[in-house]
Amino acid sequence: MTYKTFETERLWLRPTSTEDASFIFELLNSPKWLQYIGDRNLKSEDDAKRYIEERMLPQLKRLGYANNTVIRKTDGVKIGTCGLYDREGVEGVDIGYAFLPQFEGKGYAYEAANRLKQAAFTNFNIAVLNAYTSEENRASQRLLGKLGFTLKGLVYLPNDDKELLLFQLNRATE
To answer: In this structure, what CATH number is given to the domain that contains residue 61?
Structure first.
């Protein structure tokens, strides 16, 4: 099956595959991932490959969208991820993003998330898009505001004891 890839002025977004295991290992062990998203207990590239196979690919096969690896066009470097997630035990689809530290603050997260937001509404017919972030993650909150999301309240995701901010964007108001 062929899955959708997306493009912006500076970036390519393509579904994450097991070929991205070393990159996913690095990203999921980066300081801000661990601080704001949480430890996924990936101790090797093999763990990362299993994580992709078990946590990312099933949703991609089921819905046609999931986690995307974000690649810079100028040099082909993998710089982050941006995805649409249908989480078990959570109503609705949410958008999420994470970038390696050296690629933060350059507008890549906005560029990737804005393109994926458009895809959610036009390509995947999602009516309401959610986003979650921790209260401490001010940069993510600012980005969500710039993307047009509004704060709806506080929530807990299943199997997580950390209270998160819930942001939402409706296709109708977009």
So the answer is: 3.40.630.30
For 44-61, give the DSSP string. Answer: SHHHHHHHIIIIIHHHHH
Mark residue 3 as left, alpha or beta (left: phi above 0; alpha: psi -120 to 50; beta: remaining).
beta
Q: What CA–CA distance (Å, rounded) separates 148 from 173? A: 9
User: How many domains does the chain fold into?
Assistant: 1
CA–CA dist 118, 90 (Å, integer):
22
Query: How far is residue 3 from each of residues 17, 100, 117, measured CA to CA in Å?
Result: 11, 24, 17
pLDDT at 99 over 90: yes
Please say if the pLDDT value at position 15 is more than 70. yes
HSE, side-chain direction, 13 A CA sphere, residue 123? 14
End-to-end CA distance of the chain: give it in Å, rounded.
Answer: 30
Residue 54 makes CB contacts below 8 A (sequence gap 6+) with none
